[in-house]
């Protein structure tokens, strides 16, 4: 690679301005601390018998409203830890839930963005890389689930990744969970929950424009289909045209996700979710050398953050997914309830990637200051039949 671009950055701070503002903030902070102390001293009384000071009561008022425009801010229950609708406060496990409202408030663009705000978890382990949702729970890579059924694109790249706008919440269970999920990671699991039909009518259209020329439009509408509310429907649609941080990068996507819920009686609930998703992205990860990124390159300079070492027109990861999920619940009597989920998924992908080769250690540069490249190409398909059936007994 001959035509590499470099940049160097120098940072400068004015000590005088910084000290001036620091002194001003310190003066304000001192005033704020001293004033309440005087108020407390003035409000105190002395008990005549014991001689001890008695402070006046302090009334604290707060808003306990938990509902936001897109749903609850804090999730009260979770089915991931026990596969039952148990309140989180009653579950003797460490579990974190990112709700739809939280994801929107925090500006999450991808599933792995929700990991960064979770205690004991880390997201984007490999930097900017749209091929997978990379993260770690308690130091281990988590098993990934979608609606309670195993889902994974890591290492094969034959499937599309769940769009953040199709999710209702993300539940993260920390610690071993093989008793409920079979073979899984020691650190924990991530269960992404798809949006489902709601009884209350809602129609939402979102148009976005942002960094890297990101243009996206989203449609989300739900409500009753019949007057009695026995049939509910929902449709989520998305289209995106976007560049990326890396030169020649693309992050385009299209999503159609209709769903319908049948509730013939109070003891039966069946939801069918369809998903057609198509993505056209450019692998952003370039496998750059340590020299030129963390350390200076052979010429003493650093690579730009938008450096592209691939081949324009060759690098691509185009994937298509068609999936159908059926989720049902049937209450047999006052004690027993049967729940089950089944999914069929068919996906295909074309993956081409030219990246910085691993020759010429330790710098990975040739004697002329150039870089050798490795070309990788594969075309594959994946077909899944997945199912989970469980029974719950509710008794005193």
Give a description of the structure:
This protein is mostly beta strands and 396 residues long. Helices cover 10% and strands 41% of the residues. The chain contains three helices and 23 strands. The protein has helices at 15-43, 100-105, 178-181; strands spanning 6-7, 45-46, 53-54, 67-68, 71-72, 77-78, 86-87, 94-99, 121-123, 135-137, 143-146, 149-150, 167-174, 188-194, 202-210, 214-224, 231-241, 251-262, 268-281, 302-303, 316-331, 336-356, 373-393. The strands form seven sheets. The chain has an eight-stranded antiparallel sheet with strand order 15-16-17-18-19-21-22-23, with no helix packed on it. A five-stranded mixed sheet has the order 8-13-14-11-12.
Write the layout of secondary structure elements.
Layout: E1 6-7, H1 15-43, E2 45-46, E3 53-54, E4 67-68, E5 71-72, E6 77-78, E7 86-87, E8 94-99, H2 100-105, E9 121-123, E10 135-137, E11 143-146, E12 149-150, E13 167-174, H3 178-181, E14 188-194, E15 202-210, E16 214-224, E17 231-241, E18 251-262, E19 268-281, E20 302-303, E21 316-331, E22 336-356, E23 373-393
């Amino acid at each position: 690679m001959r035509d590499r671009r470099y940049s160097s950055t120098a940072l400068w701070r004015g000590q005088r301005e910084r000290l001036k503002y620091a002194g001003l903030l310190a003066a304000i902070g001192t005033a704020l601390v001293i004033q309440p102390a005087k108020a407390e001293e003035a409000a105190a009384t002395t008990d005549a018998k014991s001689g001890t000071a008695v402070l006046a009561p302090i009334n604290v008022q707060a808003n306990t409203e938990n509902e936001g425009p897109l749903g609850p801010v804090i999730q009260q229950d979770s089915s991931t830890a026990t596969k039952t609708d148990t309140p989180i406060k009653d579950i003797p496990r460490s579990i974190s839930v990112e709700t739809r409202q939280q994801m929107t408030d925090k500006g999450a663009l991808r599933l792995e963005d929700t990991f960064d705000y979770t205690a004991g978890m880390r997201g984007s382990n490999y930097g900017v890389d749209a091929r997978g949702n990379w993260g770690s729970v308690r130091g281990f890579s988590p098993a990934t689930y979608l609606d309670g059924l195993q889902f994974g694109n890591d290492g094969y790249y034959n499937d599309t990744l769940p769009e953040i706008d199709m999710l209702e919440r993300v539940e993260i269970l920390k610690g071993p969970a093989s008793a409920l999920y079979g073979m899984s990671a020691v650190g924990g699991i991530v269960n992404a929950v798809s949006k489902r039909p709601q009884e209350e009518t809602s129609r939402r259209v979102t148009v976005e424009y942002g960094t890297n020329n990101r243009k996206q439009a989203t449609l989300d509408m739900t409500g009753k289909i019949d007057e009695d509310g026995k049939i509910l429907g929902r449709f989520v649609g998305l289209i995106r045209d976007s560049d990326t941080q890396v030169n020649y990068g693309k992050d385009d996507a299209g999503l159609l996700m209709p769903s319908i819920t049948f509730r013939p009686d109070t003891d039966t609930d069946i939801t069918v979710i369809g998903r057609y998703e198509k993505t056209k992205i450019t692998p952003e990860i370039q496998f750059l050398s340590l020299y030129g990124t963390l350390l200076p390159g052979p010429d003493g300079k650093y690579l730009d953050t938008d450096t592209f070492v691939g081949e324009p027109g060759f690098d691509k990861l185009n994937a298509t997914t068609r999936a159908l999920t059926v989720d049902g619940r049937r209450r047999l009597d006052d004690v027993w309830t049967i729940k089950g989920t089944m999914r069929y998924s068919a996906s295909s992908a074309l993956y081409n990637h030219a990246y910085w080769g691993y020759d010429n250690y330790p710098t990975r540069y040739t004697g002329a200051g150039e870089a050798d490249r490795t070309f990788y190409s594969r075309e594959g398909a994946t077909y899944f039949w997945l199912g989970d059936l469980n029974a719950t007994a509710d008794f005193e």
